[in-house]
Specification:
The complex is a heterodimer of chains A (63) and B (438).
Chain A: H1 3-21, H2 23-45
Chain B: H1 8-16, H2 22-40, E1 43-45, H3 48-63, E2 75-79, H4 106-113, E3 117-122, H5 150-157, E4 163-168, H6 174-179, E5 183-186, E6 206-211, H7 214-224, E7 239-243, H8 246-250, H9 255-268, E8 272-276, H10 285-308, H11 314-323, H12 328-348, E9 354-358, H13 378-383, E10 387-394, E11 400-406, H14 412-426
Parallel strand pairs in B: 2-3, 2-4, 7-8, 7-9
Antiparallel strand pairs in B: 1-3, 4-6, 5-6, 5-10, 9-11, 10-11
Helix pairs in contact in B: 2-3, 7-14, 10-11, 10-12
Classes of the chains: A mainly alpha (63), B alpha/beta (438).
Chain lengths: 63, 438
């Protein structure tokens, strides 16, 4: 994971948001957009085996 | 003694012995609300007439020898995101300003079956997320009570109700309970039904409640889930796994030393306290929690948001917007990492009665604009493990600190056993707090 990759990802998400909702909305919600995009990037960078299944029905004892 | 000062357990015992009636208890609590509500602002709705009618019915039943449960005749507060038939339910949002449900949430139904009286609806942040309620912290009215279950925590703290229900998706029960110096309980995921509670994030939402004693919380859980077994009881002081790392690094200057003082008392009374190292996957908790919650909140609100986005307050509007931008693969990846975190944390519990850490990052922040950080609670909402906060002392400013206990999945009763031992050892006063305005 590189800092540049994260920045580029956030930029792409903001660009998508701009296309959907316009500049004013993106400005207003940029903090949320950045924080969620940063979290998405971090999640995407975490190594996982293909066999790791998603939690679809929460059963904390069975995970 | 005024009836509002009684714990739930004390009130139930006196009612059973014919020394207290639901009518007298309800009157005392309603008077307390009348006296303190202008300062604390914990309630959205209190229907005095309806409460008194139900209290009189309960009084008649109990006088006739019908004692439905230890909650019979006990007035209970319910967060304003729980559906209550015939009673205004606003979700803390102008979008639901006049909404009166035609049915009860499952918990409300269960409470009514047990003979409890719904005292009223308590203040919540908008849709149980971030934008604050007007409620003030009884320990210092210049400070937030925490959120999102703001009204429930404040009401229990100052003796307006012996029991009040909330919900937790990040830290919305344990944090306000700790800030307000009450006991707070968040169940194992889905142990208590979320039916009829307005969703924020389906796979993270939990039912929880506040009381002033652990005994009261245990009585409540046993009434709602009489099928839960006791589990093994050793009668010995507990074996506690102490979580530092992330918690020590993020705790405020007052919180960590206060936590160490509390741990010192527990150790001094015979608890075994062992340092436990958090698993590597734990570092992913904040990101995984945010991705899941943003997407599920966006999905829960999608239809209404499309039509009425302008009626949402700013924080929630931004949060929903950010969730709409997350790719499906990222959401699923977050749920896959979540499975790893749950597995790693459940393994960590092997050999311990429970894990312990501070209940909150800080004491209740000054002002009402922000309800505080859920960073010490969201790991347990993400993993679905049961948690209890027990008041553990006061900060230099005179604000409550809390000890958070994290139990094994579905061993909520066992967790209460440890919490009761800690409560007895820590000796925090359990009476109602008269609001303090500096």
């Amino acid at each position: 994971m590189s800092g540049d990759g994260e920045k580029e990802y956030i930029r792409m998400v903001a660009e998508t948001a701009r296309t959907m909702w316009g500049e004013e909305t993106v400005k207003q919600f940029m903090d949320h957009i950045e924080r969620t995009a940063k979290a998405v990037y971090e999640v995407g960078s975490y190594p996982l085996e293909a066999s790791a299944e998603p939690v679809t029905k929460m059963r904390p004892e069975a995970a | 003694m005024e009836a509002y000062t009684l714990s739930l357990a004390e009130a139930a015992r006196l009612m059973r012995n014919g020394m207290l009636t639901p009518t007298r208890l309800a009157e005392s609590l309603l008077d307390r609300i009348d006296e303190l509500e202008p300062v604390v602002e914990a309630w959205v709705t209190v229907d005095r007439e309806k409460v008194m009618e139900e209290a009189e019915e309960a009084t008649k039943e109990i006088t006739d020898g019908v004692f439905r449960s230890p909650l019979h005749g006990i007035p209970v507060g319910v967060k304003d995101i729980y559906y209550t038939e015939g009673t205004l339910t606003t979700m803390g949002s102008p979008l639901f300003a006049g909404f009166v449900p035609d049915r009860d949430a499952d918990i409300v139904k269960a409470l009514k079956r047990a003979g409890a009286i719904i005292l009223g609806k308590t203040e919540t942040t908008e849709f149980a997320l971030h934008d604050p309620a007007p409620t003030r912290n009884p320990w210092n009215t210049g400070h937030t009570p925490g959120g999102s279950s703001s009204g429930s925590a404040a009401a229990v703290s100052c003796g307006m109700a012996p029991l009040a229900f909330g919900s937790q998706t990040g830290g919305s029960v344990v944090r306000p309970a700790s800030y307000c110096g009450t006991v707070g309980y968040k169940c194992t995921y889905d142990l208590l039904s979320r039916g009829g509670v307005y969703p924020l994030s389906w796979s993270l939402d939990h039912i929880g409640f506040m009381t002033r004693t652990v005994e009261d919380a245990l009585i409540t859980l046993r009434t709602l889930r009489p099928d839960l077994s006791d589990g093994p009881q050793t009668g010995k002081p507990p074996r506690l796994g102490l979580l530092s790392g992330y918690f020590k690094e993020n705790a405020s200057e007052e919180v960590w030393p206060g936590f160490e003082r509390a741990v010192g008392k527990l150790w001094g009374e015979g608890a075994q306290v062992v340092d436990v190292k958090l698993p590597e996957s734990f570092r992913m908790v904040p990101s995984v929690h945010r991705v899941i919650m943003a997407v599920e909140t966006a999905a829960a609100h999608e239809d209404m948001f499309r039509e009425r986005a302008d009626e949402y307050r700013e924080y929630l509007r931004g949060f929903i917007s950010s969730g709409l931008l997350v790719p499906a693969t990222a959401y699923l990846r977050a749920q896959r990492i979540r499975g790893q975190i749950i597995s790693d944390v459940v393994k960590l519990l092997e050999g311990y009665d429970c894990l312990i850490c501070p209940s909150t990052v800080d004491t209740a922040p000054r002002g009402l604009q922000w309800t505080g950080s859920p960073a010490f609670n969201s790991p347990w909402s993400l993993t679905g493990l049961p948690t209890v906060t027990v008041p553990s002392g006061l900060s230099g400013e005179g604000l409550p600190l809390g000890l958070q206990l994290v139990g094994r999945p579905y061993d909520d009763i066992g967790l209460f056993r440890v919490a009761a031992w800690c409560e007895k050892t820590l000796e925090f006063p359990t009476g109602p707090k008269d609001p303090h305005t500096p």
